[in-house]
Amino acid sequence: MAVLDVTWAVKWLTLSAQAMAEHRAYLIELDRAIGDSDHGENMDRGFQAVLDKLSETPPGTPGVALKLTAMTLMSKVGGAAGPLYGTAFLRAATSLGESAEIDPAALANALAAARDGIVARGKAEPGDKTMVDAWTPAAEAARKAAVDGDVLAVLVAAAEAAEAGAVATDPLVARKGRASYLGERSAGHRDPGAASSALILRAAVGAAA
Amino acid sequence: MKKLINDPRAVVEESVQGFGLAHANLVTVSTDPTFITRNDAPVSGKVGLVSGGGSGHEPLHAGFVGRGMLDAAVPGAVFTSPTPDQILPATLAVNAGAGVVHIVKNYTGDVLNFETAGELAEAEGVSVRTVLVNDDVAVEDSLYTAGRRGVGGTVLVEKIAGAAAERGDDLEAVAAIGERVNANVCTMGVALSACTVPHAGTPSFDLAEDEIEIGIGIHGEPGRHRIPMENADGITDRLLEPVISDLGIASGDRVLLFVNGMGGTPLSELYIIYRRAAQVLSERGASVKRSLVGNYITSLEMQGCSISVLRLDDELTDLWDAPVHTAALRWGV
Fold it and tell me: Which long-range contacts (CB under 8 A, 24 or more apart) does A143-148 make?
């Protein structure tokens, strides 16, 4: 039975950092096609900084771990991804509050808060070919799974929906972010932000398994 | 791709260090976080001007720090906007009590990071106004994009707003001058080749030997259209036409013509572009009163150029002519 406490949160962030390092070249290549080739580099640099911060100041609750992550990503990543992921983690941290352990409903609420934060900061809507296209189905799937599922079921539902959402950005024409300048030519490529979002949500499952 | 670098991850840091050493008479480089201020900042009674953005566009922005232009520049990673933890201390460092103007190129990342830093500065009691530069006419449909990008016009906004601040204009006036420049300048660019971001190692897009990209931005991103290569006059006409029509240039207008190199095109070719652009403008009855030709806002080693036209009035002309002393732009002193 998975327990989502601070140990899980730290493991999630550690696995996220590993995923960013491992898929750095893949994210750069996605971004090269419709952006400016920096997404993999920035996410890798940002999450390595998160790991440094977590070992410097070990967090006491999942909320504190996510807040530390938010502040580090905002100050280290730059570009649009820094403030967007920073806002997502900050809203999730606020939603979790000071609780030591996360139940399915709180988890679904935190994911919805993260999604709302990204939408509020970036002003993108579903279908604009951005990370919103991963987070919106993920938050939605989490909400449904939380009705009668345990935390692992919620995490799995969110990760699967985010992965499907990222794949579904392939045919879309971008309307927000750097890729939007390409117009029709942005179709046929996966959105790098949606792809990194799916990797991060998959890492959350790995940390609970 | 061969590059004169030591470590792809240390490019910005080492380049900024060299810049600081080379121009120690003009600027001070702060590290951790990285930003560049003019030596005499904060200048008593003067509105501070801060700009910044991804690196890779040199001399923008650090090359424009000094008397009569910027008080501080904040460089991000290559093609990546700087972060609020850099922008905030730069803003505080140049605030002399008269407030600070942020000059921000309209890209999602730059806007988000400067917005956050501006809020934090306001919370510390510093008045901040933002001038958003969006002069790129290549972006046709702002409704379905992040809007027009800030490109060549940024240099002109920084020079002219910088002169306004230097002569003692207050915060609102400096911001208003910056906005007036932005409202009267349009730009369009072309790439003959892509550029290679150091940490990526491969060109930012693929372009055949006989193709060019029309309507590029400054981050190595592809443009709006890809067409077969043409001669210089043909390309100039293609770039200038949307600029003229968007600005509504009419007979009798006085303009500044700015031909900017993207980093990998020789000056001789930029002057061939300038020659044709000046010809076309004069055929339209516009009078080219001021000019700027060179590599001022670049995309690493990209081959290509952009053409900017700024409609001048007496005040903007005077501010353009006002003394400036920076690493990349210097006259009157």
Answer: A143/A108, A143/A112, A145/A104, A145/A108, A146/A104, A146/A105, A146/A107, A146/A108
- Alpha carbon separation from B301 to A30, A141, B2, B58, B219 (Å, rounded): 22, 46, 11, 10, 11
Residue B330 lies in a domain: no
Please say if B57 is a catalytic residue: yes
B23, B57, B61, B102: the active-site residue: B57
Strand partners for B188? B307
B102 strand-pairing partners: B50, B130
Please report where in the chains the tokens 């999602």 appear, as a residue.
Answer: B108
Domain span at residue B103 reads: 10-168
Q: Do A79 and B84 make contact, defined as CB atoms within 8 angstroms?
A: no
State the CATH number of the domain containing residue B113. Answer: 3.40.50.10440
**Would you say the ipTM is above 0.85?**
no
- Pairing of the two strands B100-105 and B48-55: parallel
Asked if the C-beta of B217 comes within 8 angstroms of chain A's C-beta atoms, the answer is yes
Place of tokens 């996410």: A43
Domains of chain A (ranges; CATH) run: 6-208 (1.25.40.340)
**Domain shared by B190 and B162, yes or no:** no
Which of A30, A37, A72 best probes binding to B when mutated, by most B CB atoms within 10 angstroms? A37
Which of B112, B120, B195, B219 to mutate to probe the A interface, most A CBs <10 Å? B112
The DSSP H or E segment spanning B317 is helix B314-321
Q: What is the pTM of this model?
A: 0.86
Chain B residue numbers touching A181 (CB-CB < 8 A): 138-139, 145-146, 149, 217, 221, 223-224
Q: With CA atoms as reference, report the closest residue to A200 among A79, A90, A54, A43.
A: A43
* Catalytic position from the list B23, B61, B102, B219: B219
* pLDDT tens digits along A24-79: 999 999 998 888 788 999 999 999 999 999 999 999 999 999 999 999 998 888 88
Task: Tell me, yes or no, whether B279 and B138 share the same domain.
Answer: no
Closest by CA position to B51, among listed B38, B62, B40: B62
